[in-house]
Amino acid sequence: MSTETGTGKTTGTRTRAGTGTGTGGAGALPGAWSLGVSRGVLEIRQFVRQRDAVIFTFAFPIVFLALFASIFSEGMEGTGVTASQMYAAGMVAAGIMSTSFQSLGISIAVERDEKVLRRLRGTPMPPAAYFLGKVWMVLATGLAETAILLLVGSTLFDLDLPTSASKWLTFAWIFVLGLAGCALLGIAISSLPKSGKSASSVVVLPFLILQFVSGVFIPVHQIPDWLLNIGALFPLKWMCQGLRGVFLPESAAVLEQAGGWEYGRVALVLGAWVVGGLVLCLMTFKWKNRRDG
């Protein structure tokens, strides 16, 4: 009896141990990718709950497109291009940079100041999962804002959307490269503000200046070359230029600084900003404020 009982216990123990081992293997910590997806869902939920931020973010390009379409109702003189068509590229590009560069630059600085990053760094979550979550959030908000802008522009302001697959393909790669480059630049600049309170001033000012020298508010043929050359150092100018090639007729290319859309150079510069932005992030990103050591 005792032997059988002992054997039974031993067998039971081995079975449970075997089951436990199997369960342990199945219950291993998820990888950075799956955690990044979960983190992204959380980031999107947190963003949606901030109604004022949602309204301001999505309304920003729509309000400006409405203003320009109303003020400059005659469009580009001598070209037959409407104001909404002329400013659509700039509004889409500014919207992309707003949801990526500005959003991440401010939100990460605030999270660092409130020691959210410090607490996350102390968890088993891989650091890459945090950044993947931000990328998913930026991608979702960027797509939503762009879709809403194009929908409103086409229904209310006579914006003609591209009709060829090649134009939409061009739109897609400019959107992806621009969003990635601006997001990485936003992560990098988030380390510049000394506190969460100063983050808005530090991030919004350069973004606002870039909009004036990159062809967002002012047509490029009316901007001095030396200012355009400054804007050419950053991704916004190239996003605007590439997207103008999507929304404007080929005849409007002569108004560009180089007399053409320069898609190859657009891809090269935006790709360089993706690589350069990643390097900047690796060099400058900090999980703690400077005063915390």
How would you characterize the overall build of this protein?
- The chain is mainly alpha-helical and 293 residues long.
- The protein has one domain.
- It contains 11 helices and no strands.
- It has helices at residues 2-26, 32-49, 51-71, 83-113, 116-121, 127-156, 165-189, 199-213, 225-231, 235-247, 263-284.
- Helix 3 runs parallel beside helix 6 and helix 7 (165-189) runs parallel beside helix 11.
- The longest helix is centred in the middle third of the chain and has 31 residues, at 83-113.
Topology (SSEs and partners):
Layout: H1 2-26, H2 32-49, H3 51-71, H4 83-113, H5 116-121, H6 127-156, H7 165-189, H8 199-213, H9 225-231, H10 235-247, H11 263-284
Helix pairs in contact: 2-6, 3-4, 3-6, 4-6, 4-7, 4-8, 4-10, 7-10, 7-11, 10-11
List keywords for this structure.
single chain, 293 residues, mainly alpha, 11 helices, globular
Instruction: Quickly count the domains.
Output: 1
* Order of SSEs: HHHHHHHHHHH
Mean pLDDT level? 85
Q: Level of helix content?
A: over 70%
How many DSSP helices? 11
Q: State the secondary-structure class.
A: mainly alpha
- Tell me the overall shape: globular
Multimeric state: single chain
Approximately what portion of the residues adopt beta-strand conformation?
under 5%
Largest sheet entry: none
Radius of gyration: 25 Å
Count of β-strands: 0
Which spans have pLDDT < 50 for at least 5 consecutive residues? 1-25
Query: How far do the termini sit from each other?
Result: 67 Å
